[in-house]
Amino acid sequence: MTKSNWRKQLFDIIETDSNSWASRIYDWLMLAFIVISIVPLAFREQNIWFVWFDKVSVTVFIIDYLLRWMTADYRLPKRPRTVAFLTYPFTAFAILDLLSILPSVLVMNKAFKLLRITRLAKILRVFKFIRYSKNVQILLRVLRKEKSILLTIFGIAVFYIFVTALVMFNVEESAMFSDFFDALYWATTTLTTVGYGDICPSTDLGRVISMISAVLGVAVIALPSGVITASYLDELREAKKEKKK
Length: 245
Description:
The chain has helices spanning 3-14, 21-38, 48-70, 72-75, 81-87, 92-107, 115-121, 129-132, 134-145, 147-171, 180-191, 204-244. By secondary structure, it is an all-alpha fold.
């Protein structure tokens, strides 16, 4: 087996789009290590088991990072081989992988005292699920495909929040709406139908505006949900057709 073939087989294993059994096992193992690495973040107190969890998981992440770097020319086939190796560390997923590794490496250095910052930075490992989950990748393709419609809906929502906040800020003169940010906060929670209740109108006109905002909020939230659901189902149908070929 030539070196080139060995590297190509390695790339097929670590590449999430591959449907081989080895690739699926690799993806599941990486997902398991991601879960193991973030479990300690759910506890205030740390123990020896959590320390070992972190050491083992970060070792696996480093190996995964190096393997992907070794096969960068297959991952970036449109670029010259040397350029692919040099530019891979600056790709989005490579940067995410590196940021998920660095906190643990820095903590191992006794001179590094910003432990709270590194603890928070480890949360970035959650985003590694994007690489190893095919369903998440389908969702990302849906968002890219429907980005123009979703951005339009987002613009409508922001515009409506701003206008409603302006109206409420000028209608209500109670202490709850002491500044415009309070009105923006109220408009956002009302439009999204959350309604925490910490800020609410006291006048009849303000309550009418609040009811209208809540009803329209249901419609605004339903629009992107319908678009994403329909496009997601289309992507699943296309994926099933490709598997049958």
